[in-house]
Automatic annotation (TrEMBL):
Recorded GO MF terms: anaerobic carbon-monoxide dehydrogenase activity
Protein name stated in the entry: CO dehydrogenase/acetyl-CoA synthase complex beta subunit C-terminal domain-containing protein
CO dehydrogenase/acetyl-CoA synthase complex beta subunit C-terminal domain location: 1-120
Species lineage: unclassified sequences, metagenomes, ecological metagenomes
GO biological process: acetyl-CoA metabolic process
Matching SUPFAM superfamilies: Prismane protein-like
């Protein structure tokens, strides 16, 4: 698997099932388990939330598939997802803006794609 989720105090998992407090508690209960602390390392881009330590761990845990992530950007080096997310944010170049489509929306989104197609990118 090439997905690796990074949870912070102000950023839950994309699926919404694990928040910072739950992840922190789980890492203390089972220190060798799948939830663990990641030292952020050096700040690369504070605005986008890119940190050297997080990049190193994401690269390791994604088996080299993902080398960089920005915690706070959906456009440049976005966070990976396991597929359990409830909505998708997509860019609409014609208006230089974003659209959001909910998992339960069964029609075609404004970009011409159904949720299922966007979820498989």
């Amino acid at each position: 698997p090439t997905h690796a989720c990074c949870i912070t105090p102000d950023r839950t998992s994309l699926c919404g099932s694990i928040n910072w407090f739950d992840a922190r508690a789980a890492s203390k209960v089972d220190p060798k388990g799948p939830l663990f602390e990641i030292p952020p390392g050096e700040t690369i881009n504070k605005e986008f939330g890119e940190y050297s330590g997080i990049n190193e761990m994401i690269k390791k845990r994604s088996l080299g598939e993902i080398e960089r992530i920005n915690l706070y950007s959906g456009m440049e080096f976005p966070h990976t997802s396991c597929g359990c997310f409830e909505a998708i944010d997509f860019f609409i170049p014609e208006v230089n803006g974003h659209g959001i489509v909910d998992r339960n929306y069964s029609d075609i989104a404004i970009n011409g794609l159904p949720f299922s197609a966007m979820a498989n990118f």
